[in-house]
Amino acid sequence: MSYELWAIDAGAGEAILREEDRWYLTAMDREWKPVELESPQGIVEWSLSRHVVRIGREFETRDEAVTVARQVCLAAWGSGSFSSEEIQRLLADLQEREVRRRDPVHWSEINRAALILDGYFQELGCSKEESLQLILLTLVRLWQSKEWTKSGRELNLFLQKLARAVYLDTRDHSERQPQAINQKLSDSDRERLGRALERLPFEVLGILTSWVNSSYSDEEIAVILHVSPESVRRAIHIAVEALGRSAGQLRTPSFAELCKEIVRARS
Amino acid sequence: MSTAPSAYERAAAGRHAILARFERCRERLERNGRSCALRSFQAVLARRTAAINMPIPKLVRFIEEGGYLSIYEFVAQETGLTGEELVRAVSDRLKEFGPVRLKLDRLFGFQHDSHYASLNLGGAGTRRYGCCCVVFNLRHWAPLYTCYAGDSVRACCHADKTPALTEEEILAEFAIGEDLERLATVRWEPSLQDLTQGPYFGPSEIRHIIEAADSLLEIHLHGPVTRDRIEEVRLTRADYHHLRDLERRAEGRPGPLPWEFDNVEPFRKMLESLDRFEVPLVLAED
């Protein structure tokens, strides 16, 4: 059974609800307790001198419909906005907040943000693969920051800051990479990374080992291993997270050697 | 060229029938020795006003904006539409109820600025439409207002949307303002014939008959209903004290207030607006 918020007159602090063939008036004047109206007389009478704004939104419970009607009316009173357009905007804002409350990750915005980030990283000269990794790192940091409830312009600005920080971090590491290439892993690093590699799923370890032991792109590794490019990217991302190192830091001869040792040991 | 509203002309067209019914009613009352009752009934009715009941938030907007608008006027104000386009826009907003509303308007000849009010003799009005009873002096619309003995919307449709009465039967209760006393006499003849009542009526007894919960005499005001035409606003003493009590309890209460307090802010605004525009607030007995 569904409950329709049929219409609102926010200026009068009233709304009409429908539950199948039954109609109700809920009003600020009556502490929002729904009063059943006869149909069609009750609704026609109500509408005679009302600023009827059609809503037509359905809810699972009557309480939910009443709550939204009340929130819209109070918001309209707070802002002095009563026109149809303004009421629809208030309702959309409320709806968005509700979606965000229930599902903090607003995927449509995250997808949009990912596209913007991709453009940003590519402009900085990153390859598609690098860009994808940086996007993932940025989104992971967004998640860790607990700021994912931001939206619109606020979210974009926050993502830009994060993206810049992620880019600078990885560039730092990349710049240190020539040293890293020539440097052997310290005993403690070998031990720590070895333990982490042992804990990785074998499939991830296999992909990672192939990737760090070559200079092939994600797509090329995917062809060689008969897996999807997405699996390659996911495996690298899992490894980066588990090992606490950037992708650039992993593609070194000493780490590649360590991977092969762990693969052999686990095989 | 006539300037009378089309609703007035429609009501005037049926005047002869109202006059004839009233004449028969008067004769019956005279035969039963109830002429005095009729005279006091008519004298009290001569002091009539029109009232529109509305919720507090609606009254605040009316006072602040200066005009009480019909749905047509609201939509016209918002969209700038006129004529048939406006009618279509209103019908669209009312969805399945649009045809009922249009039929009602066509039957009575109501225009976009026709407003529904009710006959008021001093009470708090038809409270199912809201606790604020806004009272108007009929001289602003006289002689071109019209009236209906009962609730025209309810008379026009059954719950299953088929007409309860024929158009002739509905229009038989429709009259020009000048015939309001005659129409009311015909409508409430059984009460006037009631021999358990004394030969004379007082205003409160007539109010008791006409303003009963299941009783209504509709008045249609053709033309603008504006703030400057308000005589007074009535609230029942009980409603007023309840709202004052809520207002006191809301003061200094921390955090978001429960739903029952939502009306406090509009109530404060109402008192403020009435004061600013010098509209009298009168407490009516329950």
Query: How many DSSP-defined strands of chain B?
Result: 10
Order of helices and strands of chain B: HHHEHEHHHEEEHHEHHHEEEHHE
Sheet with the most strands of chain B?
8 strands, mixed
Work out the strand percent of chain B: 15-25%
Provide the spatial order of strands within the biggest beta sheet of chain A: 4-3-2-1-5
Which H/E pattern describes the elements of chain A? EEEEHEHHHHHHHHHHH
Range of helix content of chain A: 55-70%
**Number of DSSP E strands of chain A:** 5
* Tally of helical runs of chain B: 14
Percent strand of chain A equals 5-15%
Q: Major sheet of chain A: size, sense and barrel closure?
A: 5 strands, antiparallel
Output the structural class of chain A. alpha+beta
Individual helix count of chain A: 12
Residue windows where pLDDT falls under 50 for at least 5 positions of chain B = none
Broad shape of chain A: elongated
What quaternary form is this? Answer: heterodimer
- Termini separation of chain B: 47 Å
Cα radius of gyration of chain B in angstroms? 21 Å
Distance linking N and C termini of chain A: 57 Å
Helix content of chain B: 40-55%
What do these coordinates show?
- Chain A is an alpha+beta fold and 267 residues long.
- Helices cover 66% and strands 11% of the residues of chain A.
- A 5-stranded antiparallel beta sheet of chain A has the order 4-3-2-1-5.
- The longest helix of chain A has 31 residues, at 152-182.
- Chain A is elongated and about 85 Å long.
- Residues 176-182 of chain A have low confidence and may be disordered.
- Chain B has helices at residues 6-13, 15-31, 35-45, 56-65, 71-79, 83-94, 98-108, 152-156, 167-171, 180-187, 189-193, 203-210, 237-250, 264-276, and strands spanning 49-54, 67-68, 114-120, 132-136, 146-149, 174-176, 217-222, 225-226, 230-236, 281-284.
- Chain B has an 8-stranded mixed beta sheet.
- In chain B, helix 4 runs parallel beside helix 14 and helix 13 packs across helix 14 (264-276).
- The longest helix of chain B has 17 residues, at 15-31.
- The A-B interface holds A 7, 9, 11-14, 27-29, 31-32, 38-41, 43-45, 47-54, 70, 73-74, 77, 82-84 and B 52, 54-58, 61, 68-71, 74, 78, 93-97, 100-101, 104, 115-116, 129-131, 151, 153-154, 157, 159, 161, 259-260, 262-263, 265-266.
